[in-house]
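Attaching the record inline, Q. Sequence:
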Amino acid sequence: MPTLGLPCLSALSVRLALLLAFQLGCLRAAEFSVFVNGARGDGKTVSTQAIQATIDAAAADGGGTVVFPTGTYLTGALFLKSGVELRLDEGVTLSAVRSDDAYPESRTRVAGIEMDWPAAVVNVNGQRNVKITGPGTIDGQGDFWWSKFWGEDRKGGMLADYNARKLRWAADYDCKRVRGVAIYDSKDVEVNGVTILRPGFWSLVMTYSERVTVRNVIIRANMGERMGPSSDGIDVDSSRDILIEGCDIDCNDDNICLKAGRDADGLRVNRPTENVIVRDCITRAGHGMFVIGSETSGGIRNVEVSNLRAIGTKYGIRFKSAKIRGGIVENIRISGIRMENVPKPIHFELNWNPSYSYPTLPAGMKLSEAPVHWKVMMQKVEPEARGIPLFRKISIRDVEATGADGALYVNAYREKPLAELSLEDVRIEAKTAGSVKSGSLWTMRNVRLLLDEVVEKVPYEACYDVPQPLIEKRR
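Structure, as predicted:
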């Protein structure tokens, strides 16, 4: 859609392909077996030191591939090094040690702010030319941390305590839970073919990184009927030149999500997520097939999403932010989307989850006595207008959705409406039309809503030059 001022996405694809092809040839073929250093795949012996020693030996030799005999290896945090491939063959499982002590804390960024946080099960920190390959498994044993967060019955734990004290916004930050795979401040990284099971927190996240490929990864972040809290699938945070393709994700939060920092701290860092391709993925349980936000402070731009399928995911195309996030989200192109039994197929909520988004101290509590990361979260964004996010130049086309509750939902700001949204070849079957608040300069071509309710128009408020879709009664 050239009228939107979108970048040449074919050039973006070529650039990414060249960069990512470079990383594939950077690793040496020498193999280093963890068995030599005493790792045992019996599911009982803690093998953290033996596996780490093997990683270190491969790195010291100039690079190589760390391999495992078939088995289940109990491990705490592992730290990959430049030039090393961690290869988990079929029948190999890394199983997380169920203890906080096995995951040392270090400075990183989590959910939009920089703070100390436990290491993941597998970490790539400040490295280059690293691979994590399958088809083996990384099992986060996350139910240990889920119980800590919301209790065995999902009605207690730290979340219930913080809700009672009107501190919902702090619960996720204070309950330090272990992630599956974390890539931080690294370049030329590939994660290919592994399965990630039940992480304590997010499944796979990349932050402040460049040229990362995530390909053919399977994420199963729940345990049957037991759901993992905040168990995001794949998160991209203030990173660039990213390719995500061929993944299959079942989780209990955002399935594929782009982020760029939160509020005053995110605006301070001011580092965008940019040049991202997401394609050929399937999402199942979860809170968003493809999501931007809510951490938008550093900006998110130049994104191409294509050929995604959502099956029973709560949200489909989901954008979220808040009035103190700030940032510009622009040049987003989404196409070839199929959604089955997705209640909210196209959803823009820019005043998302106030109890989480707007930190306030309960009566009687002094900020001077609060933890450091609370003080960071409570820093005011000044001037206030800087905190209002701007979403613009977004193209959504070739979309089919069935089993929806509301077809189209937009809640933006009068000061900065959702601008230059293009909808083309969109067909949604839903109970209701939804609603739009604060949009401007949209285009619609062949947009059909097949509804159970009888209405002539989608309700609009504070909209300028926003055409109506074609509305039909569903038979």
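The mean pLDDT is 94. The two ends are 33 Å apart (CA to CA).

More tomorrow.
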